[in-house]
Amino acid sequence: MNSTAQYLNPSEAAKQLGVSTKALRLYEERGLLRPLRTTAGWRAYSPDEMMRASEIVELRALGLSLTEIARVLSGEVPVLRRALAAHEASLEARARGVHTTILRVRKLRSELDSGTMSVASVVSSIRQASNTISVALDLPWPWGGERFEIPELRHMTFITGPLGSGKTRLAMRMADVIPGALFVGEDRLKDSAVAAREMLDGNTELEARVRRSVAEIVEAGGSETDALLALFTALEAEGPPVLVIDMLEEGLDTATQEALICLLRRRAPEARQLIFLTRSSSILDVDLVGPDETIILCPANHSPPMIVAPYSGTPGYEALITCLATPSVRARTAGVVAMRRIE
After folding, report:
1. Which residues constitute the domain of residue 231?
2. What is the signed CA dihedral for 121, 122, 123, 126, rounded to 10 degrees?
3. What is the pLDDT of the chain when averaged over all its residues?
């Protein structure tokens, strides 16, 4: 090591970059970072490695998957060009949405000042203008009927929790009480190719949208599978304003999961509300959760679900992290609830 250069340990590097140490380990596992090792075996990040890490963080903020970032860092400029174009389009759509909301709020203020609208009507109209929905329900079994309320459910919502925590029952209940919501269960994977092709048969517009989305996933490093085809058939079909999807990651490998969540984050603000069940750290990467996203944790002890902010030290954060695992671990432990030694 050069004694004149400043080398940072993982905690210092993560703090400077604004990410978690877990994210740094993931970047290293994927070959994006190669920190030095001290004589004691500890990781040390040099200025050059920190510069590369900051580039990775910036590219992640632009919505690129780790597979796409690897290609960009290896010199594939077209990948970055496409990502920037998609990010620009998303920002422009959001800007138009914000401008429209500002005009509506301004109009409502004028009507309120002139006495032509009640306070209750103004509050209701503002909630509609902000593109959010509210949820209020009595919790199903395994809970005891406690009241669960979310005043603002954002554009994209993640529901997670350990096996047996009741998250699927919560999702199904939410689909029941949210007007127009549709629950898409794991049965979509049964004969998924046949069912998807039957739905696409004769519907040229839907087929074009599905094929375009699948092509984007493949271009980003994912794989075209029956599970992905079935998922996009549900996602792209017209109709329900809200979709509640059970275990979004089922049947999808790591690269496909990463590409999928990046694509979904780039959707226009006026696109339908999406609620996902997941236990995959590739789908729910807490370092990338944005202001238009909500995390709902179903605790292992069946206490009421809670909304968790994606920051270390906030209530429920540590429990949230323990629920998530990489796709390889999820595949290896599929269906495992618990193990105990038999004497």
Report:
1. 137-332
2. 120
3. 85
